[in-house]
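FAQ: What does the model actually see?

It sees only this:
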Amino acid sequence: MYPLTYTSAMSETADQDTPFVWPSVRTIEVRAPWRWLRAGWNDLRAAPGPGLFYGAVLALMGFLLTRYYAGAVGLALTTGFLLVGPFLAIGLYDVARRRERGEGATLAPSLTAWKANLPSIGFYSLILTLSLAVWIRVSVVVVALFFPDGTPTLAEFVGELGRSPDAWGFLLAYAAAGAGLALLVFATSAVSLPMLLDREKMDCVSAMIVSFNVLRQNFRPMLIWGAIVVVLTALGFVTAYLGLIVALPVIGYATWHAYRETVAPASG
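And it is asked to produce this:
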């Protein structure tokens, strides 16, 4: 009894005394995002069940958010969907990781994958939620400044673009505000959640810093990757949400491959 307790205590002490080593960030070429996209598509083809399940659930969430929240809030939720996307795709990261390891890519284990590093993943999900709340407030203010009588429909707004310079002013102001927040979230979330899932002892802030370093060191390819994510998600929305069923799992799987290629494996 005593030797077991002593050994356990020694093991815990050794873990606590182990110095933290920052993950090494790799430099990638500009065409790397297209390779991740192909790998994500291959994952979906190899494991269609879990991927299409998550795609359908996320597409339904997008539909409900935009269907029952109109006006400025609905617009903010539609555009803010990308802000919380990294957390919603945790199950997809787990499926891609299991395929990489040669394990069965089944749905059930991925549903609780977040438990592997619950404190850090939970804290990061809170950060993303607060980011979405900030964006909703900013979006409502910008819309109210340019359209005090109410948010126009898409058809009305397109018509206003040909008649009023205020519509163009709104478009530029809204895009600038959204791009600033989106770049910040993207910089700190590009590979952080796959990393938190893969490395159970990694803390949230360290993962965000590593993700930022990935963007800083590989700005052009990561910017291309961010643009690909935005375009695919937008295409999913304009296809009556049906495109999201395929686009979102491909993006989720590809994000795992982006993490594996940009961050060197942990030593030991």
